[in-house]
Specification:
The complex is a heterodimer of chains A (255) and B (309).
Chain A lengths: L1 H19 L2 H16 L1 H5 L3 H4 L7 H19 L2 H9 L2 H6 L5 H30 L5 H29 L2 H17 L12 H7 L3 H13 L6 H26 L4
Chain B lengths: L9 E5 L6 H8 L11 E2 L2 E2 L4 H7 E4 L16 H11 L4 H14 L15 H13 L5 E5 L7 H18 L2 E6 L2 H7 L2 E6 L2 E6 L1 H9 L1 E6 L4 H9 L4 E7 L2 E6 L2 H14 L6 E5 L3 H9 L20
Parallel strand pairs in B: 1-6, 1-7, 4-5, 5-6
Antiparallel strand pairs in B: 2-3, 7-8, 9-11, 9-12, 10-11
Classes of the chains: A mainly alpha (255), B alpha/beta (309).
Protein backbone atom coordinates (compact mmCIF):
# COMPACT_ATOMS: atom_id res chain seq x y z
CA UNK A 1 0.00 0.00 0.00
CA UNK A 2 1.42 3.31 -1.05
CA UNK A 3 0.54 5.09 2.19
CA UNK A 4 2.61 2.65 4.23
CA UNK A 5 5.47 2.91 1.75
CA UNK A 6 5.31 6.71 1.95
CA UNK A 7 5.27 6.59 5.74
CA UNK A 8 8.33 4.33 5.75
CA UNK A 9 10.07 6.61 3.28
CA UNK A 10 9.56 9.64 5.53
CA UNK A 11 10.44 7.51 8.57
CA UNK A 12 13.76 6.39 7.09
CA UNK A 13 14.72 9.96 6.24
CA UNK A 14 13.83 11.24 9.72
CA UNK A 15 15.53 8.29 11.42
CA UNK A 16 18.70 8.92 9.43
CA UNK A 17 18.65 12.58 10.45
CA UNK A 18 17.98 11.67 14.09
CA UNK A 19 20.87 9.21 14.20
CA UNK A 20 23.10 11.96 12.87
CA UNK A 21 22.32 13.90 16.07
CA UNK A 22 22.15 11.11 18.70
CA UNK A 23 22.88 13.68 21.42
CA UNK A 24 19.20 14.64 21.52
CA UNK A 25 18.07 11.10 22.21
CA UNK A 26 20.53 10.91 25.10
CA UNK A 27 19.61 14.35 26.45
CA UNK A 28 15.95 13.31 26.40
CA UNK A 29 16.86 10.34 28.62
CA UNK A 30 18.96 12.19 31.18
CA UNK A 31 16.00 13.89 32.83
CA UNK A 32 14.00 10.76 33.75
CA UNK A 33 17.19 8.98 34.82
CA UNK A 34 18.07 11.91 37.08
CA UNK A 35 14.60 11.67 38.62
CA UNK A 36 15.08 7.96 39.06
CA UNK A 37 18.42 8.44 40.80
CA UNK A 38 17.78 11.59 42.81
CA UNK A 39 14.03 11.53 43.48
CA UNK A 40 13.30 7.79 43.57
CA UNK A 41 15.13 7.20 46.89
CA UNK A 42 12.83 9.78 48.54
CA UNK A 43 9.81 7.63 47.69
CA UNK A 44 11.36 4.76 49.58
CA UNK A 45 10.96 6.83 52.72
CA UNK A 46 7.20 7.17 52.27
CA UNK A 47 4.85 4.85 54.16
CA UNK A 48 4.43 1.95 51.73
CA UNK A 49 0.66 2.00 52.14
CA UNK A 50 0.44 5.46 50.57
CA UNK A 51 2.07 4.14 47.37
CA UNK A 52 -0.24 1.17 47.30
CA UNK A 53 2.74 -1.16 47.09
CA UNK A 54 4.16 -3.77 49.40
CA UNK A 55 7.75 -3.12 50.37
CA UNK A 56 9.93 -0.04 50.16
CA UNK A 57 11.75 -1.43 47.12
CA UNK A 58 8.37 -1.67 45.42
CA UNK A 59 8.38 2.14 45.31
CA UNK A 60 9.96 1.72 41.86
CA UNK A 61 6.88 -0.13 40.66
CA UNK A 62 5.09 3.07 41.45
CA UNK A 63 7.71 5.46 40.17
CA UNK A 64 8.95 3.92 36.90
CA UNK A 65 5.51 3.94 35.16
CA UNK A 66 5.22 7.63 36.11
CA UNK A 67 8.65 8.39 34.67
CA UNK A 68 7.81 6.50 31.49
CA UNK A 69 4.75 8.71 31.00
CA UNK A 70 6.79 11.79 31.78
CA UNK A 71 9.32 10.70 29.15
CA UNK A 72 6.51 10.15 26.66
CA UNK A 73 4.82 13.42 27.48
CA UNK A 74 7.95 15.53 27.03
CA UNK A 75 9.48 13.42 24.29
CA UNK A 76 6.47 13.65 22.04
CA UNK A 77 4.98 17.09 22.73
CA UNK A 78 8.22 18.82 21.85
CA UNK A 79 8.69 17.11 18.48
CA UNK A 80 6.75 19.94 16.84
CA UNK A 81 9.80 22.19 17.10
CA UNK A 82 11.59 20.16 14.46
CA UNK A 83 8.81 20.55 11.94
CA UNK A 84 8.90 24.33 12.31
CA UNK A 85 12.50 24.37 11.13
CA UNK A 86 11.67 21.86 8.40
CA UNK A 87 8.91 24.19 7.28
CA UNK A 88 11.31 27.13 7.35
CA UNK A 89 13.85 25.24 5.23
CA UNK A 90 11.05 24.68 2.69
CA UNK A 91 11.24 20.92 3.20
CA UNK A 92 7.56 20.54 4.08
CA UNK A 93 6.52 22.45 0.98
CA UNK A 94 8.91 20.45 -1.15
CA UNK A 95 7.32 17.21 0.08
CA UNK A 96 3.83 18.59 -0.43
CA UNK A 97 4.39 19.17 -4.17
CA UNK A 98 5.51 15.59 -4.75
CA UNK A 99 3.05 12.71 -5.27
CA UNK A 100 3.90 11.37 -1.79
CA UNK A 101 0.95 11.16 0.63
CA UNK A 102 0.68 14.42 2.56
CA UNK A 103 -0.41 12.46 5.60
CA UNK A 104 2.80 10.41 5.46
CA UNK A 105 4.73 13.64 6.09
CA UNK A 106 3.22 13.40 9.58
CA UNK A 107 2.93 9.64 10.10
CA UNK A 108 6.54 8.99 9.03
CA UNK A 109 7.74 11.46 11.63
CA UNK A 110 5.40 10.06 14.28
CA UNK A 111 6.75 6.57 13.61
CA UNK A 112 10.29 7.84 14.11
CA UNK A 113 9.25 9.46 17.41
CA UNK A 114 7.59 6.25 18.58
CA UNK A 115 10.70 4.21 17.81
CA UNK A 116 12.92 6.73 19.61
CA UNK A 117 10.63 6.73 22.62
CA UNK A 118 10.43 2.95 22.89
CA UNK A 119 14.23 2.76 22.85
CA UNK A 120 14.43 5.43 25.55
CA UNK A 121 11.73 3.67 27.59
CA UNK A 122 13.64 0.39 27.38
CA UNK A 123 16.78 2.08 28.67
CA UNK A 124 14.82 3.73 31.45
CA UNK A 125 13.29 0.42 32.55
CA UNK A 126 16.72 -1.24 32.54
CA UNK A 127 18.14 1.55 34.70
CA UNK A 128 15.10 1.12 36.94
CA UNK A 129 15.90 -2.57 37.29
CA UNK A 130 19.41 -1.61 38.34
CA UNK A 131 17.90 0.58 41.05
CA UNK A 132 15.72 -2.22 42.35
CA UNK A 133 12.65 -2.35 40.12
CA UNK A 134 11.12 -5.81 40.01
CA UNK A 135 8.13 -5.96 37.68
CA UNK A 136 6.67 -8.74 35.50
CA UNK A 137 8.06 -8.77 31.94
CA UNK A 138 4.51 -8.71 30.55
CA UNK A 139 3.88 -5.51 32.53
CA UNK A 140 6.91 -3.86 30.99
CA UNK A 141 5.58 -4.59 27.51
CA UNK A 142 2.10 -3.40 28.44
CA UNK A 143 3.79 -0.22 29.63
CA UNK A 144 5.51 0.16 26.26
CA UNK A 145 2.12 -0.27 24.61
CA UNK A 146 0.79 2.68 26.60
CA UNK A 147 3.88 4.72 25.75
CA UNK A 148 3.36 4.05 22.04
CA UNK A 149 -0.28 5.15 22.21
CA UNK A 150 0.63 8.30 24.13
CA UNK A 151 3.42 9.09 21.68
CA UNK A 152 1.28 8.55 18.56
CA UNK A 153 -1.38 10.94 19.81
CA UNK A 154 0.82 13.62 21.30
CA UNK A 155 3.36 13.68 18.49
CA UNK A 156 0.59 14.03 15.88
CA UNK A 157 -1.01 16.90 17.68
CA UNK A 158 2.37 18.48 18.34
CA UNK A 159 3.30 18.44 14.65
CA UNK A 160 -0.10 19.75 13.65
CA UNK A 161 -0.03 22.57 16.18
CA UNK A 162 3.52 23.52 15.29
CA UNK A 163 2.66 23.61 11.59
CA UNK A 164 -0.30 25.87 12.31
CA UNK A 165 1.66 28.19 14.60
CA UNK A 166 4.90 28.17 12.53
CA UNK A 167 6.83 29.96 15.27
CA UNK A 168 9.00 28.50 18.03
CA UNK A 169 8.35 31.57 20.16
CA UNK A 170 4.63 30.89 20.19
CA UNK A 171 4.90 27.10 20.30
CA UNK A 172 7.12 26.81 23.40
CA UNK A 173 4.79 28.62 25.84
CA UNK A 174 1.79 26.78 24.37
CA UNK A 175 3.39 23.43 25.07
CA UNK A 176 4.45 24.36 28.59
CA UNK A 177 1.01 25.72 29.43
CA UNK A 178 -0.56 22.41 28.49
CA UNK A 179 2.07 19.88 29.56
CA UNK A 180 3.05 21.08 33.02
CA UNK A 181 -0.47 21.08 34.53
CA UNK A 182 -1.21 17.72 32.91
CA UNK A 183 1.98 16.32 34.37
CA UNK A 184 1.21 17.62 37.87
CA UNK A 185 -2.34 16.32 37.73
CA UNK A 186 -1.25 12.85 36.67
CA UNK A 187 0.35 11.76 39.92
CA UNK A 188 3.66 11.01 38.29
CA UNK A 189 5.90 11.79 41.22
CA UNK A 190 3.62 11.22 44.16
CA UNK A 191 0.29 9.43 44.50
CA UNK A 192 -2.66 11.76 44.08
CA UNK A 193 -4.35 9.95 46.94
CA UNK A 194 -2.04 11.92 49.25
CA UNK A 195 -3.81 15.13 48.14
CA UNK A 196 -7.07 16.72 49.24
CA UNK A 197 -10.36 15.79 47.63
CA UNK A 198 -10.57 18.84 45.35
CA UNK A 199 -7.17 18.02 43.83
CA UNK A 200 -8.18 14.41 43.25
CA UNK A 201 -11.34 15.73 41.60
CA UNK A 202 -9.49 18.04 39.19
CA UNK A 203 -6.99 15.29 38.44
CA UNK A 204 -9.74 13.23 36.88
CA UNK A 205 -9.56 15.54 33.80
CA UNK A 206 -5.99 14.51 33.02
CA UNK A 207 -6.06 11.55 30.64
CA UNK A 208 -2.55 10.59 31.74
CA UNK A 209 -3.82 9.95 35.22
CA UNK A 210 -5.84 7.00 33.93
CA UNK A 211 -2.97 5.72 31.84
CA UNK A 212 -0.52 5.86 34.74
CA UNK A 213 -2.97 4.13 37.04
CA UNK A 214 -3.37 1.32 34.52
CA UNK A 215 0.38 1.01 34.05
CA UNK A 216 0.91 0.81 37.80
CA UNK A 217 -1.73 -1.90 37.98
CA UNK A 218 0.21 -3.87 35.37
CA UNK A 219 3.48 -3.37 37.24
CA UNK A 220 1.74 -4.75 40.34
CA UNK A 221 0.71 -7.78 38.32
CA UNK A 222 -2.99 -6.86 38.01
CA UNK A 223 -3.97 -7.10 34.34
CA UNK A 224 -7.73 -7.42 34.46
CA UNK A 225 -9.63 -4.79 36.39
CA UNK A 226 -11.55 -1.53 35.92
CA UNK A 227 -8.47 0.69 36.19
CA UNK A 228 -6.85 -1.24 33.35
CA UNK A 229 -9.94 -0.99 31.14
CA UNK A 230 -10.21 2.73 31.82
CA UNK A 231 -6.53 3.23 31.06
CA UNK A 232 -6.70 1.36 27.76
CA UNK A 233 -9.88 3.15 26.72
CA UNK A 234 -8.38 6.58 27.48
CA UNK A 235 -5.06 5.77 25.77
CA UNK A 236 -6.69 4.39 22.60
CA UNK A 237 -9.28 7.16 22.50
CA UNK A 238 -6.72 9.90 22.96
CA UNK A 239 -4.40 8.45 20.29
CA UNK A 240 -7.30 8.16 17.83
CA UNK A 241 -8.64 11.68 18.39
CA UNK A 242 -5.22 13.33 18.24
CA UNK A 243 -4.19 11.32 15.20
CA UNK A 244 -7.38 12.42 13.48
CA UNK A 245 -6.86 16.08 14.45
CA UNK A 246 -3.27 15.96 13.23
CA UNK A 247 -4.20 14.36 9.94
CA UNK A 248 -6.78 17.08 9.32
CA UNK A 249 -4.02 19.68 9.40
CA UNK A 250 -1.65 17.73 7.17
CA UNK A 251 -4.34 16.91 4.60
CA UNK A 252 -5.53 20.49 4.28
CA UNK A 253 -5.16 21.89 0.79
CA UNK A 254 -3.56 25.08 2.08
CA UNK A 255 -0.69 24.88 4.50
CA UNK B 1 -5.49 36.43 -14.63
CA UNK B 2 -5.68 34.36 -17.79
CA UNK B 3 -2.61 32.81 -19.35
CA UNK B 4 -1.47 30.02 -21.62
CA UNK B 5 2.03 28.63 -21.79
CA UNK B 6 3.09 26.44 -24.72
CA UNK B 7 5.26 23.34 -24.61
CA UNK B 8 8.97 24.04 -24.50
CA UNK B 9 8.49 27.71 -23.68
CA UNK B 10 10.44 29.58 -21.03
CA UNK B 11 7.98 32.00 -19.54
CA UNK B 12 8.59 34.55 -16.83
CA UNK B 13 6.45 36.25 -14.26
CA UNK B 14 8.02 39.63 -13.69
CA UNK B 15 6.94 41.82 -10.82
CA UNK B 16 7.97 43.35 -7.51
CA UNK B 17 7.60 41.60 -4.17
CA UNK B 18 3.96 41.27 -3.25
CA UNK B 19 2.74 41.48 -6.85
CA UNK B 20 1.21 38.00 -6.65
CA UNK B 21 3.88 35.99 -8.47
CA UNK B 22 4.52 33.45 -5.76
CA UNK B 23 0.83 33.17 -4.87
CA UNK B 24 -0.01 32.34 -8.47
CA UNK B 25 2.80 29.81 -8.60
CA UNK B 26 1.71 28.22 -5.35
CA UNK B 27 -1.78 27.81 -6.73
CA UNK B 28 -0.53 26.25 -9.97
CA UNK B 29 1.64 23.80 -8.01
CA UNK B 30 -1.22 22.65 -5.70
CA UNK B 31 0.21 24.33 -2.60
CA UNK B 32 -2.63 26.80 -2.33
CA UNK B 33 -6.24 26.10 -3.14
CA UNK B 34 -7.57 28.73 -5.54
CA UNK B 35 -10.70 30.48 -4.30
CA UNK B 36 -11.99 30.74 -7.87
CA UNK B 37 -11.02 29.90 -11.42
CA UNK B 38 -9.63 26.85 -13.16
CA UNK B 39 -6.37 25.67 -14.66
CA UNK B 40 -4.89 22.78 -16.57
CA UNK B 41 -1.29 22.19 -15.58
CA UNK B 42 0.82 19.86 -17.76
CA UNK B 43 -2.38 18.21 -18.99
CA UNK B 44 -3.92 17.57 -15.55
CA UNK B 45 -6.83 19.50 -14.13
CA UNK B 46 -5.63 21.49 -11.13
CA UNK B 47 -8.80 21.07 -9.09
CA UNK B 48 -9.91 17.58 -10.14
CA UNK B 49 -6.51 15.88 -10.19
CA UNK B 50 -4.00 17.69 -7.97
CA UNK B 51 -1.91 14.54 -7.49
CA UNK B 52 -1.71 14.20 -11.28
CA UNK B 53 -0.38 17.76 -11.41
CA UNK B 54 2.20 16.99 -8.70
CA UNK B 55 3.37 13.91 -10.56
CA UNK B 56 3.95 15.85 -13.77
CA UNK B 57 5.57 19.05 -12.55
CA UNK B 58 8.77 20.04 -10.87
CA UNK B 59 8.77 22.87 -8.37
CA UNK B 60 11.72 24.77 -6.96
CA UNK B 61 10.56 27.07 -4.18
CA UNK B 62 11.88 30.53 -3.54
CA UNK B 63 15.01 30.34 -1.40
CA UNK B 64 14.84 33.72 0.28
CA UNK B 65 12.12 34.96 2.58
CA UNK B 66 9.86 33.27 5.08
CA UNK B 67 10.75 29.78 3.86
CA UNK B 68 13.82 28.52 2.05
CA UNK B 69 14.47 26.45 -1.04
CA UNK B 70 13.58 23.00 0.29
CA UNK B 71 16.87 21.39 1.26
CA UNK B 72 17.71 20.23 4.78
CA UNK B 73 21.09 21.53 5.99
CA UNK B 74 21.89 18.29 7.81
CA UNK B 75 21.29 16.03 4.80
CA UNK B 76 23.98 14.89 2.41
CA UNK B 77 23.63 16.06 -1.18
CA UNK B 78 23.21 12.51 -2.47
CA UNK B 79 20.59 11.74 0.22
CA UNK B 80 18.49 14.69 -0.84
CA UNK B 81 18.58 13.54 -4.46
CA UNK B 82 17.78 9.90 -3.67
CA UNK B 83 15.01 10.82 -1.22
CA UNK B 84 13.48 13.13 -3.80
CA UNK B 85 13.59 10.37 -6.41
CA UNK B 86 11.82 8.04 -3.97
CA UNK B 87 9.21 10.72 -3.26
CA UNK B 88 8.45 10.73 -6.99
CA UNK B 89 8.20 6.94 -6.79
CA UNK B 90 11.23 6.24 -8.95
CA UNK B 91 12.67 2.76 -8.48
CA UNK B 92 15.96 2.81 -6.49
CA UNK B 93 18.19 2.01 -9.47
CA UNK B 94 16.33 4.60 -11.57
CA UNK B 95 16.74 7.13 -8.74
CA UNK B 96 20.48 6.47 -8.53
CA UNK B 97 20.81 6.90 -12.27
CA UNK B 98 18.87 10.20 -12.26
CA UNK B 99 20.88 11.46 -9.28
CA UNK B 100 24.15 10.75 -11.13
CA UNK B 101 22.89 12.46 -14.29
CA UNK B 102 21.75 15.55 -12.40
CA UNK B 103 24.99 15.73 -10.39
CA UNK B 104 26.80 15.92 -13.71
CA UNK B 105 24.39 18.31 -15.38
CA UNK B 106 24.23 20.78 -12.51
CA UNK B 107 27.96 20.69 -11.68
CA UNK B 108 27.57 19.03 -8.32
CA UNK B 109 30.27 16.41 -8.92
CA UNK B 110 32.40 15.77 -5.86
CA UNK B 111 29.77 17.22 -3.53
CA UNK B 112 27.71 14.04 -3.16
CA UNK B 113 28.92 13.27 0.38
CA UNK B 114 28.87 16.88 1.56
CA UNK B 115 26.29 18.15 4.03
CA UNK B 116 23.90 20.64 2.46
CA UNK B 117 24.88 23.27 5.05
CA UNK B 118 28.46 23.27 3.78
CA UNK B 119 27.47 24.16 0.21
CA UNK B 120 27.86 27.65 -1.23
CA UNK B 121 24.72 29.59 -2.12
CA UNK B 122 25.08 28.77 -5.79
CA UNK B 123 25.76 25.07 -5.17
CA UNK B 124 22.78 24.78 -2.84
CA UNK B 125 20.53 26.47 -5.39
CA UNK B 126 21.73 24.10 -8.10
CA UNK B 127 20.93 21.19 -5.80
CA UNK B 128 17.45 22.59 -5.24
CA UNK B 129 16.94 22.88 -8.97
CA UNK B 130 18.22 19.31 -9.40
CA UNK B 131 15.59 18.18 -6.88
CA UNK B 132 12.89 19.77 -9.02
CA UNK B 133 14.13 17.83 -12.06
CA UNK B 134 14.70 14.40 -10.57
CA UNK B 135 11.60 12.87 -12.19
CA UNK B 136 12.29 14.53 -15.58
CA UNK B 137 9.14 16.67 -15.48
CA UNK B 138 7.86 18.20 -18.71
CA UNK B 139 7.08 21.41 -16.85
CA UNK B 140 9.13 22.97 -14.09
CA UNK B 141 8.26 25.96 -11.91
CA UNK B 142 11.17 28.01 -10.62
CA UNK B 143 10.28 30.58 -7.99
CA UNK B 144 12.94 33.29 -8.11
CA UNK B 145 15.67 30.86 -9.12
CA UNK B 146 18.59 33.26 -8.71
CA UNK B 147 17.51 35.63 -5.95
CA UNK B 148 20.25 36.15 -3.40
CA UNK B 149 23.03 34.73 -5.58
CA UNK B 150 26.18 36.53 -6.63
CA UNK B 151 26.43 37.61 -10.28
CA UNK B 152 28.65 34.70 -11.36
CA UNK B 153 26.37 32.10 -9.81
CA UNK B 154 23.43 33.85 -11.36
CA UNK B 155 24.73 33.79 -14.91
CA UNK B 156 25.91 30.21 -14.37
CA UNK B 157 22.38 29.26 -13.34
CA UNK B 158 20.96 31.04 -16.36
CA UNK B 159 22.97 28.70 -18.56
CA UNK B 160 21.57 25.69 -16.74
CA UNK B 161 18.01 26.95 -17.03
CA UNK B 162 18.50 27.70 -20.72
CA UNK B 163 19.88 24.18 -21.21
CA UNK B 164 16.73 22.69 -19.67
CA UNK B 165 14.81 23.79 -22.68
CA UNK B 166 17.47 23.49 -25.36
CA UNK B 167 18.62 20.00 -24.32
CA UNK B 168 15.54 18.45 -22.73
CA UNK B 169 12.66 20.41 -24.19
CA UNK B 170 11.42 21.22 -20.68
CA UNK B 171 8.84 23.95 -20.30
CA UNK B 172 10.02 26.44 -17.70
CA UNK B 173 7.77 28.79 -15.77
CA UNK B 174 9.77 31.14 -13.60
CA UNK B 175 9.20 34.20 -11.49
CA UNK B 176 11.77 36.88 -11.11
CA UNK B 177 12.20 40.44 -10.14
CA UNK B 178 15.42 40.68 -12.07
CA UNK B 179 14.91 42.33 -15.43
CA UNK B 180 18.11 40.95 -16.90
CA UNK B 181 16.94 37.50 -15.95
CA UNK B 182 13.63 37.82 -17.76
CA UNK B 183 15.45 39.43 -20.65
CA UNK B 184 18.11 36.72 -20.97
CA UNK B 185 15.97 33.66 -20.32
CA UNK B 186 12.38 34.20 -21.21
CA UNK B 187 10.61 33.73 -24.52
CA UNK B 188 7.63 35.49 -23.05
CA UNK B 189 7.14 37.70 -20.06
CA UNK B 190 4.04 38.42 -18.04
CA UNK B 191 4.38 41.69 -16.18
CA UNK B 192 2.35 41.24 -13.06
CA UNK B 193 1.31 43.82 -10.50
CA UNK B 194 -1.32 43.76 -7.77
CA UNK B 195 -2.35 40.25 -8.80
CA UNK B 196 -3.19 41.10 -12.40
CA UNK B 197 -1.26 40.76 -15.63
CA UNK B 198 -0.34 44.29 -16.62
CA UNK B 199 1.29 43.28 -19.92
CA UNK B 200 2.43 40.24 -21.85
CA UNK B 201 4.84 39.64 -24.71
CA UNK B 202 8.40 38.80 -25.66
CA UNK B 203 10.93 40.97 -23.83
CA UNK B 204 11.58 42.82 -27.10
CA UNK B 205 7.90 43.33 -27.83
CA UNK B 206 7.26 44.68 -24.37
CA UNK B 207 10.12 47.10 -24.58
CA UNK B 208 9.02 48.31 -27.99
CA UNK B 209 5.33 48.43 -27.29
CA UNK B 210 5.44 50.15 -24.01
CA UNK B 211 8.36 52.46 -23.93
CA UNK B 212 9.79 52.71 -27.43
CA UNK B 213 13.47 53.47 -27.94
CA UNK B 214 15.14 56.46 -26.43
CA UNK B 215 17.19 58.81 -28.61
CA UNK B 216 19.34 61.34 -26.83
CA UNK B 217 20.65 64.25 -28.90
CA UNK B 218 22.96 67.00 -27.81
CA UNK B 219 22.47 70.26 -29.67
CA UNK B 220 24.39 73.01 -27.94
CA UNK B 221 22.75 76.23 -29.18
CA UNK B 222 19.52 75.81 -31.07
CA UNK B 223 17.82 73.23 -28.87
CA UNK B 224 14.51 75.09 -28.80
CA UNK B 225 14.31 75.08 -32.59
CA UNK B 226 15.44 71.43 -32.79
CA UNK B 227 12.87 70.42 -30.23
CA UNK B 228 10.08 72.13 -32.19
CA UNK B 229 11.11 70.48 -35.46
CA UNK B 230 11.42 67.01 -33.99
CA UNK B 231 8.21 67.23 -32.00
CA UNK B 232 6.38 67.70 -35.31
CA UNK B 233 7.63 64.33 -36.58
CA UNK B 234 4.93 61.66 -36.34
CA UNK B 235 7.42 58.97 -35.29
CA UNK B 236 8.34 60.93 -32.19
CA UNK B 237 6.09 59.92 -29.31
CA UNK B 238 7.56 61.98 -26.53
CA UNK B 239 10.18 64.66 -26.35
CA UNK B 240 11.82 66.53 -23.55
CA UNK B 241 14.79 68.81 -23.28
CA UNK B 242 17.15 69.95 -20.61
CA UNK B 243 20.43 71.87 -20.84
CA UNK B 244 20.71 71.48 -24.58
CA UNK B 245 20.01 67.75 -24.48
CA UNK B 246 16.93 66.43 -26.21
CA UNK B 247 15.44 63.14 -25.13
CA UNK B 248 13.06 61.55 -27.61
CA UNK B 249 10.98 58.44 -27.35
CA UNK B 250 10.46 56.84 -30.75
CA UNK B 251 9.37 53.49 -32.11
CA UNK B 252 12.03 51.50 -33.95
CA UNK B 253 14.85 53.84 -33.02
CA UNK B 254 17.31 52.25 -35.42
CA UNK B 255 15.05 53.08 -38.38
CA UNK B 256 13.97 56.46 -37.03
CA UNK B 257 17.46 57.79 -36.51
CA UNK B 258 18.32 58.63 -40.16
CA UNK B 259 15.09 60.53 -40.74
CA UNK B 260 15.49 62.49 -37.53
CA UNK B 261 18.97 63.46 -38.58
CA UNK B 262 17.71 64.55 -42.00
CA UNK B 263 15.14 66.88 -40.41
CA UNK B 264 17.81 68.52 -38.29
CA UNK B 265 20.20 68.72 -41.22
CA UNK B 266 17.60 70.49 -43.35
CA UNK B 267 17.36 73.18 -40.68
CA UNK B 268 21.14 73.43 -40.53
CA UNK B 269 21.38 71.95 -37.05
CA UNK B 270 24.22 69.50 -36.42
CA UNK B 271 24.01 67.45 -33.25
CA UNK B 272 27.16 67.27 -31.13
CA UNK B 273 26.38 63.78 -30.04
CA UNK B 274 23.68 61.25 -30.60
CA UNK B 275 22.81 58.14 -28.67
CA UNK B 276 20.21 55.44 -29.19
CA UNK B 277 19.27 53.23 -26.27
CA UNK B 278 16.82 50.39 -26.14
CA UNK B 279 14.64 50.56 -23.07
CA UNK B 280 15.14 48.02 -20.35
CA UNK B 281 12.34 45.98 -18.82
CA UNK B 282 12.72 48.29 -15.86
CA UNK B 283 11.49 51.15 -18.05
CA UNK B 284 8.64 48.91 -19.11
CA UNK B 285 7.75 48.21 -15.56
CA UNK B 286 7.98 51.84 -14.57
CA UNK B 287 5.71 52.85 -17.41
CA UNK B 288 3.15 50.19 -16.58
CA UNK B 289 2.98 50.43 -12.83
CA UNK B 290 4.54 53.70 -11.85
CA UNK B 291 6.92 51.72 -9.68
CA UNK B 292 10.49 50.71 -10.15
CA UNK B 293 11.33 47.05 -9.84
CA UNK B 294 14.71 47.65 -8.33
CA UNK B 295 13.68 49.08 -5.00
CA UNK B 296 10.09 47.81 -4.88
CA UNK B 297 9.07 51.18 -3.54
CA UNK B 298 6.68 53.60 -5.16
CA UNK B 299 8.59 56.28 -7.05
CA UNK B 300 7.42 59.56 -8.36
CA UNK B 301 7.29 58.99 -12.07
CA UNK B 302 7.00 62.27 -13.86
CA UNK B 303 6.25 62.03 -17.57
CA UNK B 304 9.15 63.27 -19.66
CA UNK B 305 7.23 66.31 -20.93
CA UNK B 306 6.84 67.75 -17.47
CA UNK B 307 10.57 67.76 -16.96
CA UNK B 308 11.05 70.12 -19.88
CA UNK B 309 12.55 73.39 -18.79
Amino acid sequence: MTFIRDTLLVFRRQERLALRQPAWVIIGLTQPILYLALFGPLLKGLPTASLGTGTADDAYKFFVPGLLIQLGLFGSTFVGFAIISDWRYGVIERFRVTPVSRLAIMTGRVLRDVVTLVVQAAVLVLVGVAFGLRAPVAAVFIGFGFIVLVAVGLASVSYATALLVKSEDAFAPMINTVVVPLLLLSGIFLPLTLGPGWLQGIARISPFRYIIDAMRQAYEGHYFNTLMVEGIAVAVGMAAVFLWLGSRVFLRENA
Amino acid sequence: MDLTVGEGEIVGFLGPNGAGKTTTLRMLTTLLHPTAGRATVAGADLLADPVGVRRRIGYVPQAIGQTMGGTDPSCLVIEELLDQAALYRLRPEEGTRRAQTLIGQLELSGLERRLVKTLSGGQRRRLEIALGLVHTPALVFLDEPTTGLDPQSRSNLWEHIGALRSELGTTVFLTTHYLEEADVLCDRVFVIDHGVIAAEGTPDELKRRISGDVVTLRVASRDGMARKLLADQPIVREISSADGTLRLTVEHGDQALPSLLRVLDAAGITPESINLSRPTLDDVFLTLTGRSLRDDSPVHHAPAQEQAS
